[in-house]
Design goal:
Number of domains: 3
Number of strands: 28
Structural class: alpha+beta
Largest sheet: 20 strands, antiparallel
Strand content: 15-25%
Distance between the termini: 21 Å
Shape: globular
């Protein structure tokens, strides 16, 4: 499939994000108010970024210092060259698509660089299902400066085809080009460049609305409120998603059960997801807000517990590589799950309740009592001094120690009964530091390294991958420094809003542990790409020295708070991860292609399912009538009457409709033509935009086709076609039905034979789906045949008894 400017931009952004986590659009330029003016007051999705300024090596901000390093600058430039080279050298096949792809490859570097480094804003005001497509309204404004006119010309070149040329329109005194919607491009596109800005509109009225807002110079209230809710000293990007509008639009399409599911989870209370990313005095700050209204329901209730305090982290050592603490009432989580399940499916809710009751009766394990005996504080950590990952420990707060011990004993009694012997392994209890460590010894000596352990104390249940991990937690003293004493963490533990979660990540240590793998894997990956014919000009020597990067790195801390507005997250680090704010340009740039790709995959599958049903009916017809139907039935004078599609209706559970036809009359008789409007949905391809009553499911005819003319034109039997024995090439090598294009759609009852074009057997088959078409084979299988298939092979597939060998690459 041919790439687009948006996908080229997306590739560049994603590649750089995943390369070494280099922050994009940073350090940010000063925000351009025009991007705020572009935001619509009634907005579904919005994203903006400020563009990239030159990094200042004298800045106090560690991220800016890192970006100012000459080695890092050289690496970024080399990575950009490698990406551009790979795009330019990618194989593109032949024909018009190859020419367009070549032109795209030429302009892709300019698109990528401009989108990454210059201020821009993207928005959607409408995204709703409309027939087989999505009705879309939205746009982009990009402060491209000197690149505006070249990008405009490149876009015009890519979008214009000989049979689909744009019209020139004038909007607010500016000239634009507009490409009308049509079946293969169901969205109207308008674009133009003016005063260094490139503007692109999707859908009717998009550019008109954008121009009107720019003239008014008024930032919408929701965007002003977003900036107030999520303050950033030097803002790099912001994004906004109107969750309520999306849920209200798409939830009803999935049916009452899905709506009930969404309501039970509390998602109907969510109003928006807002994010901002930028720089403060020392590093990168990312803030997000999941805003909701009303009394929390469903999942939102799980954030209603008490806040995490410094004392909850005292057992986590200060040399932790990673540490996470979560406030979660497990008993409440179970009840939320059960009540949500009962609201979605009452029968399933009753079954779940019965299951818990039966478990308690049969094993003595009362899940509710056990979870009630546990507290709200959960932690997971791994520390360098405790064996790194092998020393990872999970702790759960204890409210009722005797109840937890009782539950432990009952679980062990059920899993490992006394009479089981050594075949299930052994449980070993080891006294240590006034406590008892319990660990499992597997029966297989090859698994001896696996010894999960746990210990129940007055404060915690401690779980570890081995007894040593549990010992490390038990050895902790009140006077020992903990992760809560680290300045980065301590600064986040204050405040009046309850902390729902907090996580700590020792970025410098992780970098020291993992950077060597980049040095090893990069040459290997480059060589692998070159073996595939992709000339990537990149080598390990272009990676910066470890110390160049590590000296700027600081630990990362993220927190999640419950505020009066909703759930607010905040992360501080030297390098931004793939958080919502930082990745907003990528997410929005890829939103429309991703949605369309998902819908196309679903439609292609539905089309294949339709064809399989038709094949099954054909075989059932053959079993009853000792032959397949011909392309159409005839009367005793040889006059064509009705299509094969009519005669298989009884085998499609459409007997009542079949009985409505006058089988001795032609398809367009006064009576029969009234039944065209009753075409079964199975004959309608999910991609087709053909007129009502028309189908693109065509039987392959011709002299050697499976659904050709009647063998005896004056024989009025319905089964006047070929038999299974006539398919001498094999049923797996012979196409019976094709899913063609709308250009060759026919009334479903019309007695018409479809014969492949001798010179171009693909004629009439392309255009419905990207890159090929669905074909139904006589063996009952459905395969997607590429438009690049060898034409002689395709001709052979359309003939049942030509005797030529078949070699399909995708088989």
């Amino acid at each position: 499939m041919m790439a687009t400017p948006v996908s080229g931009i997306g590739i560049a952004l994603v590649a750089m994000f995943f390369g070494l986590g280099l922050p994009l659009g940073m350090p940010p330029e000063k925000e351009n108010p025009v991007m705020g003016y572009a935001a619509p007051s009634d907005c579904l999705v919005y994203a903006t970024w400020a563009g990239m300024a030159a990094p200042n090596a004298a800045s106090s901000n560690q991220t800016e210092q890192l970006l100012a390093e000459p080695e890092v600058k050289a690496f970024a430039a080399a990575l950009e060259r490698a990406i551009n080279s790979a795009v330019a050298s990618a194989p593109r096949g032949g024909g018009d698509d190859a020419e367009r792809a070549a032109r795209l490859a030429k302009s892709a570097p300019l698109w990528a660089r401009t989108m990454i480094t210059r201020p821009a804003a993207m928005f959607l005001t409408k995204l709703v299902p409309q027939g087989n497509n999505l009705a879309i309204e939205g746009g982009l404004i990009l402060q491209a400066d000197a690149a505006a006119d070249p990008l405009h010309a490149a876009l015009s070149d890519l979008l214009t085809t000989p049979d689909h040329k744009p019209a020139e329109v004038t909007i607010a005194g500016r000239k634009f080009q507009r490409l009308a919607a049509r079946p293969d491009q169901p969205v109207e596109i308008t674009w133009g460049a003016s005063n260094g800005f490139l503007m692109i509109g999707l859908g009717p009225g998009a550019i008109e609305g954008l121009s009107s807002r720019l003239a008014a110079k008024q930032e919408p209230a929701w965007l002003t409120q977003l900036k107030t809710n999520l303050p950033i000293q030097r803002r790099s990007s912001s994004s906004y998603i109107n969750i309520k509008q999306l849920v209200d639009t798409f939830a009803p399409l999935a049916g009452p059960q899905a709506e009930g599911f969404i309501g039970a989870l509390g998602l109907k209370q969510v109003t928006s997801l807002q994010s901002s990313t930028g720089l403060d005095e020392s590093g990168v700050v990312s803030r997000s807000l999941l805003a909701y209204t009303g009394q929390p329901r469903g999942l939102l209730q799980l954030a209603e517990g008490g806040g995490i305090k410094a004392a909850d982290l005292k057992h986590i050592p200060a040399d932790a590589l990673v540490a996470t603490s979560l406030s979660l009432d497990a008993r409440k989580a179970l009840e939320v799950f059960l009540s949500s399940l009962a609201e979605i499916d009452p029968n399933a809710g009753v079954s779940a309740q019965d299951g818990l009751t039966q478990l308690a009766a049969q094993t003595g394990i009362d899940v509710r009592s056990l979870l009630a005996a546990l507290g709200e504080r959960w932690t997971l950590h791994a520390a360098a001094g405790d064996g790194s990952w092998l020393g990872a420990a999970l702790t759960v707060q204890v409210r009722d120690k005797p109840q937890v011990i009782q539950a432990q004993d009952r679980i062990l009694a059920n899993l490992m009964p006394p009479n089981a012997g050594p075949r299930l392994g052994r449980i070993v209890r080891t006294p240590f530091s006034g406590q008892t460590i319990v660990h499992f010894v597997p029966p297989d000596i090859e698994m001896a390294f696996f010894a999960p352990a746990w210990c129940i104390t007055d404060k915690h249940v401690i779980f570890g991958l081995n007894p040593q991990a549990v010992k490390s937690v038990l050895l902790r003293q009140p006077s020992d420094k903990s992760v809560a004493d680290l300045p980065e963490v301590a600064a986040r533990l204050g405040g009046t809003d309850p902390l729902v979660a907090v996580s700590y990540y020792d970025t410098p240590k992780f970098f020291e542990m993992t950077y060597m793998y980049a040095q090893i894997l990069l040459p290997m990956g480059t060589a692998a790409l070159q073996r595939e014919g992709i000339p990537v000009e990149f080598d390990a020597a272009q990676l910066p020295a470890p110390r160049t990067i590590s000296k700027h790195l600081r630990p990362s801390v993220s927190v999640l708070r419950r505020t009066k507005l909703g759930l607010e997250s905040e992360s501080r680090q030297t390098l931004p991860g793939m958080n919502i704010g930082a990745s907003a340009p990528v997410a929005v740039a890829l939103l429309l292609p991703a949605v369309q790709a998902g819908r196309e995959a679903a439609r292609r599958m539905q089309g294949a399912n339709n064809l399989k049903q038709l094949l099954l009916s054909m075989h059932n017809f053959h079993d009853v009538n000792a032959g397949f139907p011909a392309a159409y039935s005839t009367n005793k004078d040889g006059k064509p009457l009705l299509s094969w599609r009519v005669h298989i209706l009884p085998y499609l559970e459409q007997q009542q409709l079949y009985q409505e036809f006058h089988l001795d009359e032609p398809w367009d008789s006064e009576h029969n033509k009234k039944l065209i409007a009753k075409m079964p949905v199975l004959f309608r391809s999910p991609n087709s935009l053909a007129a009502p009553g028309k189908t693109i499911y065509l039987g392959v005819g011709g002299k050697q086709g499976l659904l050709g003319k009647p063998l005896d034109p004056k024989d009025d039997r319905q089964a006047n076609g070929v038999r299974m024995a006539d398919i001498t090439d094999g049923t797996s090598n012979t196409v019976m039905i094709v899913e063609a294009s709308d250009a060759v759609a026919v009334e479903w009852t019309k007695p018409e034979e479809w014969v492949p074009d001798e010179k171009d057997p693909l004629k009439g088959l392309l255009g419905l789906r990207p890159n090929g078409f669905n074909a139904a084979f006589a063996d009952g299988s459905v395969r997607f045949l590429s438009k690049s298939i060898d034409l002689q092979t395709l001709k052979n597939l359309f003939m049942r008894d030509d005797g030529n060998p078949i070699n399909l690459p995708d088989r």
